[in-house]
Design a protein that fits this description.
The chain is built from 7 helices and 6 strands; from the N terminus they run αβαβααβαβαβαβ. By secondary structure, the protein is of the alpha/beta class. The protein has a 6-stranded mixed β-sheet, sandwiched between helices. The chain is elongated. The relative contact order is 0.15. The mean pLDDT is 82.
């Protein structure tokens, strides 16, 4: 009698195990498909991103901008922004995200800019730690002067995220991009350049995460130094 009773139980147990295995295999297949689709969409998005920044150009009409902001990351960006200011574009220039150990005098000497230009029209921001910080530091500077149309100077690969963060921090301001290009993305030569590929992939990942954060409504850190508060950028002065 005992063997007769345990046989159906064993059969039921084996059947349950088989069902669990089928469910497990099915779930694994769905997970694998999901991962492959995610990778595919990410790669497609990456090449769309590179196509977009390859088409970025300096605006033909710049006289309507009221001021310029340059996001640090290399002296080439700063030199270009200062050249624009000296050519009569904008009333003032904010250099955002400068390392506290770098003085205004050092920037002036390195870029070969006139002292008079710095004395009258250049502000140096030391509070931004990242792109979000650049946006918040710029927003405080904009509130100080009441600007409504700003020319943004940064690398072309950094421009989409920069404009997005700036617009988030100052939604009533028009930001016009002035991209600085280091690599020719209109040919496929950059695909053979590990440095360019790594830089572009990293920036696309950051841009994608920033878009996801904005879409979800998640609150980001200020990107400013801990003691920044509402401090304004420093006017450039020299000893």
């Amino acid at each position: 009698m005992d063997s007769d009773q345990t046989a159906p139980a064993r059969a039921g147990s084996k059947s349950a195990v088989r069902r669990l295995r089928r469910v497990g295999h099915h779930g694994l297949r769905l997970f694998t498909i999901g991962v492959l689709l995610g990778i595919t969409f990410f790669v497609i998005g990456f090449f769309r991103f590179t196509d977009t920044i390859a088409e970025l150009k300096a605006p033909a009409e710049r006289s309507e901008v009221e001021a310029i902001v340059v996001l640090t990351g290399g002296y080439q960006r700063i030199e270009q922004a200062l050249a624009l200011l000296e050519s009569g574009i904008g009333q003032r220039l904010l250099i955002s995200g400068v390392n506290p150990s770098t003085s205004s005098a050092t920037i002036r000497r390195t870029t070969g800019t006139k002292s008079s230009t710095f004395d009258c029209c250049v502000d140096v921001g030391y509070e931004a730690l990242d792109t979000i910080g650049n946006a918040n530091e710029t927003a405080a500077w904009i509130r100080q002067f009441g600007y409504r149309r700003i020319l943004v100077v940064t690398n072309n690969y950094h421009m989409p995220r920069s404009l997005m963060e700036l617009s988030q921090a100052s939604p009533d301001v028009v930001f016009v991009g002035y991209p600085i290009a280091h690599s020719d993305l209109k040919t496929e030569a950059w695909l053979a350049d590990p440095g360019a590929l790594r830089t572009l992939f990293t920036e696309y990942t950051k841009y994608s995460l920033a878009r996801l954060r904005n879409w979800s409504g998640a609150k980001a850190a200020s990107g400013l130094r801990a003691d920044a508060g509402e401090k304004q950028p420093h006017s450039a002065t020299f000893n």
